[in-house]
Amino acid sequence: MSHEHDALRPSLRHGRQALSIPGPSVMPDSVLAAMHRPMPNIYEGELVELSMSVLEDLPKVAHTSGTPYITISNGHGAWEMALTNTLCRGDKVLVLESGRFAVVWGEMATQLGLDVEVLLAPDASTAVDVDAVADRLAADTAHEIRAILVVQVDTATSVRNDVEALRAAIDGAGHPALFMVDCIASMGCERYLMDEWGVDVTVAASQKGMMVPPGLGLVWANQRAHDARATADLVTGYWDWNQRNDPAEHYKRYSGTPPIPHLYGMREALDLLLGEGMDQVWARHEILAGAVHAAVQAWSVDDGLGFFIADPAERSFATTTIRTNSIDVDDLRLRAERDAGLVLGLGIGADDPRFRIGHMGHLNPPMLLGTLGTIEAVLTAMDAPMGGSGVAAAAAALAPHL
Ligand SMILES: *Cc1c(COP(=O)(O)O)cnc(C)c1O
């Protein structure tokens, strides 16, 4: 079939566009509706109560008794808040590479004047090597490393790191560095127990598993992180934790006017998440991810599609990166979007052809099977090599849960 758009050929894209990229995710209609409202008084009354209720509930999502902070920014702002409130110029920071995002967080740290060392991943498609972390920390007998930065899930490769095992390695080495985890891709999708796993600072953002449009950064900080705040010299006005805690005027919690529509949206999203229950939310994502993984496994063939992450235990439940090998990935994504109204995530951070399916947030089987079925139809249209039906495999993976 022709690549060109044929005026006589009907396009099937009309209808609700399906967004299957790893953030922003599909927003629940109730979240969008909650945001669409007139502006309230920001000094007292309903908005203040709503804001305090959001701050009270955010720790439940990360399973922590630590303090939550909301920035009016994306995840990059949350990264900056985490670093500047806890560290001093010249401090040594160890970045654990796995895919792309931890390294970019490290680049920000370098710009801030921190001394960044990147512990390189053994391979682009594997999780952080916990033993290598243990060795590096054991070698740091002077405890020069002040903070360790890692992502729970890397959104470029779809690898999931074992945060609990990393904490065990830090403890095994008796190392006092602050442990900071980027959960921007994974919060609200992957099991995450901040306190139990001994994470000192967690960062996230609104637009992925948290199901609120882009615009909020989220930071959770424990007592060790707040102790570090006392000596941190990178802190600047907007990001400063101190002025946000128990201020006389409520707006100071946001260093200015609160992000009102987003707070209403977050209230609704928290009601959805906590109403479902975090254990159920995580289990749902694991099951839905299982369907995606079953589809990719079925499609897989030497010169066609295949998993980017080789080890099944290291595959994220929030997003999946798929190698396309001989299949023209640009054509695949173009046909999906132009002809069928399905937006797939483009490959980032490498030259080898790949695409990504986001399966975070507000998601159920018809949405997911629509995505997988459309991909399969496009592969068929392209005469692409295919092992078997991914849709059949995904349906079979879901069946025990229905
Ligand atoms: C999306 C993402 C980021 C960047 O978040 P922004 O909101 O775009 O700043 C950082 N880290 C991870 C793991 C992500 O998935």
Features:
Aspartate Aminotransferase, domain 2; Aspartate Aminotransferase, domain 1; 38% helix; globular; binds pyridoxal-5'-phosphate
Would you give an account of this structure?
- Helix content is 38%, strand content 15%.
- The longest helix is centred in the C-terminal third of the chain and has 22 residues, at 278-299.
- The protein has 13 helices and twelve strands.
- It has 402 residues and is an alpha/beta fold.
- It has helices at residues 29-35, 46-62, 75-84, 101-111, 130-139, 163-172, 223-229, 241-244, 260-276, 278-299, 329-340, 365-381, 390-398, and strands at 18-20, 67-72, 92-96, 115-119, 145-151, 178-182, 201-205, 216-221, 306-307, 319-323, 342-346, 354-358.
- α10 (278-299) packs parallel to α12 (365-381) and α10 (278-299) packs antiparallel against α13 (390-398).
- β3 (92-96), α4 (101-111) and β4 (115-119) form a beta-alpha-beta unit.
- The protein starts with 17 loop residues before the first strand and ends with a helix.
- The model has no long low-confidence stretch (mean pLDDT 96).
- Strands 2-8-7-6-5-3-4 form a seven-stranded mixed beta sheet, with helices on both faces.
- It has two domains: 29-275, Type I PLP-dependent aspartate aminotransferase-like (Major domain) (Aspartate Aminotransferase, domain 2); 277-401, Aspartate Aminotransferase, domain 1 (Alpha-Beta Complex), CATH 3.90.1150.10.
